[in-house]
Fold each of these.
Amino acid sequence: MTMMKTPLLMKTLMDRGPMFAPDVEIVSKMRGEIHRYTYADLGKRGKQLANALKELGVRQGDRVATLAWNSYRHLEVYYAVPCMGAVLHTLNLRLSAEHLAYIINHADDSVICVDEDLLPLLERIADQIRNVKHFIVFTNSGNFTTKLAPAHDYDKLIQGKSSHFVWPEIDENSPMGLCYTSGTTGNPKGAMYTHRSNYLHTISQCMADGMGVTTADTVMAVVPMFHANAWGLPYSGCMLGFKQVFPGATMDGASICQLLQDEKVTITAGVPTIWLGVKAELEANPGKYDLSHLRSMTCGGSAPPRALIDWFESKLGVEFVQAWGMTETSPLGSVARLKPKMKDWPREKQLDIKQRCGIIAPGLEARVVDDNGNEVEHDGLAMGKLLVRGPWIVSEYYKADAPERFPDGWFDTGDIATIDREGYLAIADRAKDVIKSGGEWISSVDMENILMAMPGVAEAAVIGVTHVRWQERPLACVVKKADAEITKEDVLRFLSDKVAKWWLPDDVVFVDAIPKTSVGKFDKKVLRVQFENYQLPT
Amino acid sequence: MTMMKTPLLMKTLMDRGPMFAPDVEIVSKMRGEIHRYTYADLGKRGKQLANALKELGVRQGDRVATLAWNSYRHLEVYYAVPCMGAVLHTLNLRLSAEHLAYIINHADDSVICVDEDLLPLLERIADQIRNVKHFIVFTNSGNFTTKLAPAHDYDKLIQGKSSHFVWPEIDENSPMGLCYTSGTTGNPKGAMYTHRSNYLHTISQCMADGMGVTTADTVMAVVPMFHANAWGLPYSGCMLGFKQVFPGATMDGASICQLLQDEKVTITAGVPTIWLGVKAELEANPGKYDLSHLRSMTCGGSAPPRALIDWFESKLGVEFVQAWGMTETSPLGSVARLKPKMKDWPREKQLDIKQRCGIIAPGLEARVVDDNGNEVEHDGLAMGKLLVRGPWIVSEYYKADAPERFPDGWFDTGDIATIDREGYLAIADRAKDVIKSGGEWISSVDMENILMAMPGVAEAAVIGVTHVRWQERPLACVVKKADAEITKEDVLRFLSDKVAKWWLPDDVVFVDAIPKTSVGKFDKKVLRVQFENYQLPT
């Protein structure tokens, strides 16, 4: 071998912050108080934690779980556990007790680090998770009681431990992180990241055309550390040594605006809901906040409304970048930036591009295919299944759940997408929600977005209902606003000049509410059961 | 395996330009004329070339050499040869005939692509390189004669070939590129890059903190494509699809300034000599050029003078970034950017940092060690051997030449360096030039730089001469300017408040000229022989 086969290990990247940015701050908002320390502290406490975990019996490959908000302690676990060769398993604190117990047992977690205020979530399932050997509690009071045993105070546990730890040289394909998807059907499925996959994801994220984060930035991820590793930003932070800001559990518009201002944040990232809240706060309080340091915001999780993108760019002068990814893609899969030639395009045409979720990241490949596996036309209209491939995409779920999602070495995202002439992807629907009418696909999401912009409409969901001739036809389920007077004809008229004629729902029903999942997404599964035998007019 | 083991192949990166930036320009200056085409053309012609090479019998692993200036045709070879699984061997056209023949045979090149005007270089050694099966000539006239055989016209050879080629899926550790170092002693030694090493180098280079190139940039590498792959920029260009500009063979200040202006270049890279020429041209012609698009320039190869860095930043308002690397490091090893806290530092202190060659790149590791292998103090003063390690560093020379350069899995760069408290490296000397006095090291380069700034001094070299008590002591060899009247005492006085007292040369000799190598570097080997038995005053 002519080039060094130095393994791609997270330790090589993550030690750079403590080494080259020892005096740079890491800021955590903790119940209103601001905690500050530096990468030197992170390095020291992280190694103390590694020694403590080793003494508790944690060995290479063992799962160390977290059930916690974003904070410096959580970051210490992010740092120490992969570097020492163990596996960081971030538990989603929004899950049902049933799913939480399932996941802890499926992952075979040996240790759980838990925020004091989240202890009740674990206590409720204490007798179902008997294989967990230790609970380590993040506590500010230093004074907690729990029926979980044995339970340690995190700070006391690491206190006095050696701050020296030689990270092991291990195989780059060793596991280092585990995240479960909160699937709406069946049990959650685990994505097991490796050192190699996460190393490549991290440097890819830091490309100027990726999220473009630099050593000189102050970055606030308004993304839970239990969601796809907070989009990988804690890792990039440790590699580059940029100032990191953790917003804690309060993510309302006012709290976020205050932190963006006070910490002089330059790059931030979050889901559309967060930015809707920030926009509302800024509009309600003109001149209150100085956000002049902010230069770029990344938006993912779901498609942001066009007006939101435009408002941040035109009114606030901040670059608004849509990105796409999933737990199974580490998560960064695509980023929507304008190509140079588009800089002179009319604004509306630019927004057409910025509403798409971007071009597949360098190093990954994407295909949009029809039911026969053939690539659809790149015209921005033809819909197909989005398949992806690359070194930071899962090749199987942990313990080989759901093998049908991995056809021919690709990962079937479960998204229905289009791809335009310029190579930009857009997510049209989730595969299970798309309506299949006479062999053609109709996007439920597109029509819902249009309907929810209609005056008098509070919420709307569109589902497929069995049809003798077309297999499926769309049915619109609409929730009126309190005082609204709208009819089926109004709804169809509103849609008629905005979608293809054959997309128009065969019927409209008015309902009191759209059923929702525990995380607040439309639960169309429930709607479909409810309207299973619905008779469409002929 | 839970994550895809998709191999890290250059084809995945390099196909992105043709795919996502088909209409972006690639501009080549060819003997005064400007040639323009697009990434779509590159993709098409590159695949035609692959088919042509396949028909000529080129198989996976075979070496295809180039002896050429920078141009779109050279780029097509850069693209096609690695993607088809063969090895791109870039021949240095400045080498002696003897070394050229040695390298071609050592590499066992089966094909050589050669610029028409460089044919004489090969004809001179025609009877020594009989294993080469085909010569392919880059010609604009379409009309050349040569005694080399068989010789093909490049454009005619690829014309009519299919522009369809399915790049093979090969092992990521397969070789893809070969560069020889023009060593000043012994035969040149080969660095054989692999797909994996070059893939990692490419994405690392595109990090915002690396060279920071983006899709939106126009990049001109004023670095020969036969020198360490033009610092990797042709690969980054194909991956990101940015506009590339090739300056051709004319690299004087006026030509470079004209291209920077006409093509609206935003990022450029080259050695100090280039930027000295550009500075002279701009100073001689104030207001002549509009370089307002230029935002950043990277400088490597040797240390740029402090005044040069300051001039470009203060006078021209362009970020001037020093980088360090070598053929053996792919080449990018370190980049000198200011840390955020340094933004408020006094200018002179900032320049102290910018004169150093930077912090080791993410993914690589550096150690500066004394003769016993212990790390020297990080105080910016203690000198030691610079060792590096990482996935884009050579692990051995091709055919295992010079194994002593690879102690314990590290690569001994042959540079003597210091590292400061902030982690910035600086190259103090080449190991073979450093003067070892009583167990301590004296940097010849530092004293030469000081002496060459002394009024009346045209050139100066400092070498070690054998000394009974101290093993070695410095001797300054000084070339006076034509009309200068300076004495030994003047020289020592000038040095005395700028270096440690024990560094002061024991003697000064005035010489007519400093001997130079074929590429214009000081040839201290010759000087050392000349003064081998020099009697230092006691």
Note: Residues 433-530 of chain B form a domain with the GMP Synthetase; Chain A, domain 3 fold (CATH 3.30.300.30).
Amino acid sequence: MKLSKDKKILIVGLGLLGGCYAMALKKQGFSVFAITLSQEDVDYALENGIIDKGTTKVDEEIIAEADIIVFALYPNVFKKWIEENAHLIKSGTVITDVTGVKECIVYDIQSRLPKGVEFISAHPMAGREVGGVQNSDDKIFKNANYIVVPTESNTQNAIELCKSLGETLGFAKISVLSPEEHDKMIAFLSQLTHCIAVSLMCANDNEDLVKYTGDSFRDLTRIANINDEMWSELFLLNRDALLSEMDAYRETFDKLYATIKNGNREEMRDMMCTSSVRRRKFDKKN
Amino acid sequence: MKLSKDKKILIVGLGLLGGCYAMALKKQGFSVFAITLSQEDVDYALENGIIDKGTTKVDEEIIAEADIIVFALYPNVFKKWIEENAHLIKSGTVITDVTGVKECIVYDIQSRLPKGVEFISAHPMAGREVGGVQNSDDKIFKNANYIVVPTESNTQNAIELCKSLGETLGFAKISVLSPEEHDKMIAFLSQLTHCIAVSLMCANDNEDLVKYTGDSFRDLTRIANINDEMWSELFLLNRDALLSEMDAYRETFDKLYATIKNGNREEMRDMMCTSSVRRRKFDKKN
């Protein structure tokens, strides 16, 4: 089931990502509506042609008009919204999301929906260090990965529709993972990297270092400027997978530490070679 | 003492950095000579107008003709070269280097030079993930930092000349640090970051992750493709400073780990805020 241009799409939560979705879909000619907390964001999006209509209320009419609803909310806010408002969603609607953790929300939300409403979860792996619809820019989807995260209760139709949404948004690569696979992958590739960057910035408060720093430190800590509200929630919602990746990483860090302490140059070079070989694979264009 | 255009400059070691020095200096009209191991590199540099003359031998005439000698060698190779050939350097010559560790080499080399020859050490904080004169590109100096690393035995004249060399090469910022300050700074900003990137790549061998990865992982591990011969030498030559920075970092990593394990969201968010505030200072243009 391809995403056809006559579909009306409602974005719930017009922050950075919600704004990027709206922007990309509007450009392609879709009707885009929004429900979000602040009137200022609605006004901004209307003035800049990012949405067709928007409201700060949980508006039954807009919800009923939508064929597809994209939830661009923090995980716990998304859960709460569904608990309170799921009954307003009309049968036949497909809902999706942008949430960065899956196992802890996908099954729960699928179980709370009215008959005929299907939730197909997705994770757009794109973002910026700044938030808000005012910073939205759909170029962030270019060259980025989009992951569809179905469960056994999803239909093939909804999975195809969700893939088609990812293509329409402009993502370079669309993949499919189970919620459990997704969370393990994200613990390593995304959450652990943020933990490392935050720990490094906390380890040394010498501001003078700015004037000596090179690109390697800047690149490695780019993500250390972090949205603490969102990421602390994501970390706790994926706690076991994250702790397990942190354990594995600390083990190799300690191993490298020991090679330096003991002057074991051969083993140190072995680790560096392993690292180089693996890293070169990540250079490849996807 | 400004670096005047009539100075003849000899580069010993025509690898990536030596090649960048030669390229930048030739463009500005200096006479540039080179001594390096491989005839292929000499030929390449001559054919591409990067040097005026070059040789694979320790040529007494070229050494005597040079006013300034830049050693772009690995630290231990540099030391060995000086032990064997220092007597060939004529009085009045100023020598400098590009070495990434200082305390363990600067004093030693200064003590081995003939009378009238002065060694003023420097660290150009620029590089690429690829080596060799064939990959040289003097654009890497733009926006980069150049650190002059004098000891008490250096003259003001040589310090000024070395600063002037950094400006001529096109560095954005020239700083001065003692060898001890330099090594502590480099342990944190450069060596620790390389240890982190290598450890992270060694912690997980799942090649499939390539297709899900986002920019944060790619940026954080860019330096994990590492020259194992050079970096293992640099790590061991700066062992105490590096181990101490690794200890401090592991302490904050463990602290963050504990906040996740114990669900202590407030402390986790405090660390993220500290991290964000500090990281934003590194966004500033120098």
Note: The first strand of chain B starts at residue 8 and ends at 12.
